[in-house]
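Possible race condition, two jobs.
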Amino acid sequence: MASRVRPLNITIGAVCAVLTVVVWAAGNRPNPESPWPTQVAGMSFSPLRMGNDPEAGEFPSRGEISADLDLLSGKVKSVRTYGVGGTLADIPELAKSHRMSVGLGAWLTGNMEDNEREIARLIEVARANRNVTRVFVGNETLLRGDLTVEQLIGYLDRVRRAVKVPVSTGEPWNVWLKHPELAAHADYVAAHFLPYWEGIGLDDAVGHVMATVGELRAAFPKKPVLLAEVGWPSNGRTRRGSVASQSNEAIFLRRFLEVAQREKYDYYLMEAFDQPWKAGTEGSVGAYWGVYDVYRNQKFAFTEPIVRVPQWRFLAGASVALAAGALCMLLLDGGTLRGRGRGFLAATANGVAAAVVWVAYDYAHQYLTPFTITIGIALAAGFLGITLVLLTEAHELAEATWVTRRRRPFGPLLPVGGVDLPKVSIHVPAYNEPPEMMIETLNALARLDYPNFEVLVIDNNTADPAVWQPVEAHCGRLGERFRFFHVAPLKGFKAGALNFTLAHTAADAEVVAVIDSDYQVRPTWLRDLVPHFARPEIGFVQAPQDYRDEAESVFKAMCHAEYKGFFHIGMVTRNDRNAVIEHGTMTMIRATVLREVGGWGEWCITEDAELGLRIFEHGYEGAYLAESYGRGLMPDTFLDYKKQRFRWAYGAMQILRRHRRELLGLARTRLTRGQRYHFLAGWLPWLADGVNLFYTAGALAWSLAIVLDPRHVDPPLAVFMVPPLALFGFKVAKLFHLYRARVGATRAQTAAAALTGLALSHTIAKAVVMGLVTTGKPFFRTPKCENQPALVRAVAAAAEEAALAAALWLASAGVVVTQGRELPGALLWSAVLLVLSLPYVAAVLVSLTNALPVRQRLRAVLATSVPLP
């Protein structure tokens, strides 16, 4: 088999690798544009370095400014400045040696005292330096609302009287049209043309600049129009049709320069160097308008064809290498996978690898602060978690759908002729259970078609004799095979009760079987399954949990559909690698093995799953038959349903903490690689639910910041928003496919299973967090609304989920209202918030379904029995 598998894996991997490179190449075809001229007319010049902040009085040194001018010397005729604070006032003097003229600017705000100092210094510097060819009194002060038109006119008139060079103020072109009275107090119209802020698409941007220049010339025919800022950002959130990227910045500027040369525009490109400090005043995009980055590296080609991602060859290679590693891990033990399954995993691995590489590349091009680094680490951890969950989900889908055969098939066995069947001791633990129900359970056991068994009923800590005494009496009527124990007090919960019965088990019993007190077993249960213990390596035999009351209500029909997925999909694939989860009902354990591993773990709230793992650690095998041999009763209420899943998830975390060294391969154990994988991968979605609790809290906080300060707080980067949506879509598609193909469920049952599973997400999340940080067994509070109307009970059972759903909906609406018109990323973030709300909405819907009457027809549709594999 290996000689056939290896070439197939290599072929599939090679084809996917080639396709990956082709996709990268197709998205990065060279785009020829007119070359950058030898010398441009002007550039906006803010020589601040990383860590500088003019608002805090932190300016570059004279040497750093001189080095920046030297970098631009010969490439730029004139530079425009924005203030004369600190060393910025030295720019004209330093520019002389580089034969560059200066458009000198004064930074005006609403602080009149600061403005007086700025104006005085501006006049002084302008008079002292002949290479100052024009003056800018303020920059976008009207746009920000720092000054009134009258105040700004007063400053303009004052400076015009004091200097001999042309004077104006810098404002966006539309502000000049809105306040035409400014022109009478300015020597020229200094207008800003930044199509990005207006949401203009790249292909229309230069034409938009030309059209608006024409409008200004028509409005002010006697004034020269200076394009005081013209530019495009290399990074930042998309605004309507405007996409910020390095390639788009390069394309826009090169197209503009071609037009400017033809139309003889006077202009300043926006701007020479990236200014990370602006992110605090303009949002993240404010940092990325430079032709050079903050470290003085040229950001794009001036003459060569423009490539969207110049490093695409390296990134494609990294994607292929990462995908190859992931595919090797996914196919490490994939000998039974068909070619289609291998191709699916290869495609998934390549897609995930490309996404990981792109996220790393994109985030590496952000200017990071300690805060953004912290946020980035958190988001990267979440992204890694999503990646792992996606790969494990894809692996399960492939192994459930595209295999040549099941590796370890188990079915009913006929006893070997001449071999005596071993004695079985059946243990039935109970606490405060209805006697009528238990009597039915015992009657079913009495009908077993098996010659040698005993039944031990252990009632622990039930206080009311009227509950347990009828069961005791019924055991007496059933004969000597049935023994009844009532013990109070008895520590250890169910595990303590099972250890008690183990101590009282018949000495000649070779197999211990356990069922819950509500289960009614088939007569053939022992006869069909006990023969598997003829193999000495078998430590336990497990049949699926199943239920008989799905027709009682729509709620129970939904629960029944949800349960089936695990027992007829997950357990089947886990059984292939001898890694099934043992359950405390419908299970059989070899008695010597049970004693060898130390009995039931009373420290763990899921003693059954923990026992199964210990049996594996001792080198024994577990056998799983995906055929129902007994049916019990489901929780009656949504609250009880949540309690059950809380216990399962909390117990899983207890097991993970106690057995972490064995599961991670750090301690000596007989666990196989496949067993460790399935236990860790199986709990990974629950761990993701726990992380999602913090993600939801962070998403609400982030959204609140957007609503309160939409100008300065942007939605998260799209590269971090798309993966959760993709994972959610993949999991839904996987569930629908496997339920239809492997469980045989109808569309209605599949939808019910999806809704019911989602409804448990918040409960699982809380259980995971508590299980990782607490050691005691949890207390699950029961709402005190039992006597209230059904609607009140339903809301009370899902009160937390309802509150979180409402908060997420309000946050989604708030983001759309404040930023949705301008930022497509805000709409995407709003969609993420709505997707985050779905588990909480599902919980409310399931709780209402449980509490309120539902049409009989719907109940019948959902309760239709699903044929078992």
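Job #2 (started ~2 s after job #1):
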Amino acid sequence: MAEQHTLASVVSTNPLQSAGLRFVRKFGVAFFWAAVFGLGLGAAVFFRVERSQFAGDTRWHVQARLLLERLEWATFDWRSRELGDASTRSDAVVMVSVDDETIANARESDHPEWAMRPWPRELTGRVVGQLLDEGAALVVVDQPFRDVSPRTCVPCKGERTGSDDERLAAELELHEGKVVLTWAFSNERTRRGDRPLTPVMLRLGDFDTAREAYGMVREALSRKAPVTFLTSEGRPVLWAGAASEAKAKELAAALGLKVVTTRPRVPQDDERDVGEVWLAQRLSEVEVVGVDPAQLVKARTIEAPVAPLLLWGAPPGAASLPVDPDERVRALPLLVAGEIDGRPAVLASAPLLAVMRLVAAPVLEYRGGRLHVGERFDVPMDPDGFLSLRWDASEPGRGGRGTVKRTVPAWRVLQNAEDDLAGRGLRHSDNDLTGRVVVFSDERAMGGALVQTPIGALGHSAVLAQAIVDLLHSNGIVRAPPEHDFWLTVAFAFMGAVLAVVWSTLARNPGWLAWVVTIAGVASLHALAARQVFVAEQRWVAMATPVLACALTFLAAQGYARTLERGFRDFVGRALGGAVRADVFARVERDLALMRPERRVLTVYFSDIEGFTAVAQDREPAEVVKVLQAYLNEMTRVVIDSGGHVDKYLGDGLMAFWGAPVDLDDQVLAACEAALEMQARFEARRPELESQLGRSLVLRAGIESGPTVVGEMGTVHRVNYTVMGEPVATAFRLEAIAKRYGSRVLVAQPVVDAAGEAFLFRRVDRLRLGRLAEPLEVYELVGRAADRERLAPRLARHEAAMTAWFERRFSDALEAFKALAADGEDPLVDRYVARCERCLKTPPPESWSGVYDEGEA
């Protein structure tokens, strides 16, 4: 006899369900996903999106990497604000602005011209001069001078007539080396203006130094004369175009040329024409060791200052603020790539030029990821020339000061200038500018435009001021090397694998909330660590991508573990018979000991389709299985809905019971209701099935209730939650003999007693079944209590006929059964008519009690 095992022992010895093998599988799959997500996302952070790919590159892998970069930018912004909270605003740079306070005071003063819009450039020069007189180390004038001053030839009060731009230039020349102007650029090319017709070329001379040559270019361009820059034996030779010989002589006189030499214009001159953009690039060009111009952002269109302001002593620098794809400024280009005479050129930004002027550094050097400006300053810089700004505050300051400590209204500077001019010996304001760099701007001239940054909206000049502060303090955010972020991402992916294995081992079904809490915990811990590194070391390590790798690995591994555990639950479900209520299943899953065999009163049901065996022999297997599946699915649903448990399928037969594993107080009523419902559903489909299969089909069933043994039973090879006992055998036999009586559902006396008045029955026979010592009253289930009014008369007549039969009144019984037979075909009634006639012909012995053996019935 096969050895019996508990379900727990079966689960532990089944190789498909052993806990050890499930752990190994979960471990292996978790680390597989860790490799997939770790290497995949790690490669994305290793091959970072270049700034040249920010716009216009629609390749899928670029867009995918850009999406990850956007997540990193969001974490960068948060960390920048945290760093700002831990920082102190610098006083090394002071902002001076033509602000609302300046204009309001000017309107009420003796100098209403100070409230003009736009501001006269000679007034700008006066402010610059005063700033330097008050001790400023250097002034960065962050104002657009790309157009000729609207106030040209309109003098300010008490001043001589002349060009407004020339007056500003004259002031700047007085402070050579202490002023830096700005110019804007873009990465897109724009159409150049039409070149004037200048058939006559005037020789401006040849020069020994670039400074002399650039000065002459500036003078000629200031007079709207196109200039051609040639070289002869390494020396610059300049020519200017003129509309005629007369115009050439006028230009020569204006430029102070003693000798007038002209020639016709030739096509080669067009190739060497230079203008304000060329001169601005020449003045901004710097020599940098270790930088590849091809990697720098391209300044394809430059909005250079007007020619009079292109001075050797006040060079202009790039001041545009390229935005990231999310429209935020996080970094400023210290170096940009230009093109001079067909060759690549490295151009400096205005903040960088300012610092270079302070230390008189002729050459820059880029090494180890840092740009060295002389011996004093070095800042972190990307290979593409960008400085990731270190913000000294977590939010913009009041009065437009951005992140620096102070901003000074231009009104105070002008008051001090008036005090100095009047020789009062005292000044209205102590602006405390000694040794400081000043960023001078006109908010109105800039249009009041703000740029979005990690700490909020700032003015253009405020961003330049922060860049200068970073340069002066050798500060900046250093991004971790790509290989560092790669390995960090891989490590987090494997951490997600470990967490998934631990979770699936410690918790059978943790649920989505636990998963979210786990991932949130990992993200929070990494955020704290990344913040600390950012604040303490100004180092930007990947934060979003490693957490994403961890989360995806964790979810994928947990998904597999969940699937594996679901397979285990399916195994348990198969042991329970495949159809069981959820609460029962949950209890058994938590404690397999609940499946231990026990003695319990159950109601057992057997059913079979008469005629289906022959169908299985004649029809194609696929057709048979399809019909059978549809039938069994429907019948199983009826059992489950009524609180029953399907024990097994026996071909076209079905065995079910009510009352286990969960107690069911009205188990007999539930079984009877289910039996009638299954009959009704079968009868509804029977015409279709008989037409499809070509056979007459009848569903017959048997029901018995009584003490049984129920629980898990089986071997190491197979286990099942099932029931055994006399009620099982009785129900099976009742179903088997139902055909003899032409009955659909036969039940035993205990079922009738338990059902009470809820269902209608008619007596069928008194039988001795199997090993039962006592005869068993057999009944047929014919309806519900709701059918009593319709069925009661016939059932009463049937019961009277059966009473006459058992009382040996065979003539009365025969008459009663014949009367019932006259109402319509009834195999049970026909059987008793034949019995009565046989007994009348050959009466049974006196000891006869109406009991038949199972085989005689």
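The CA atoms of residues 339 and 345 lie 5 Å apart.
Logs attached separately.
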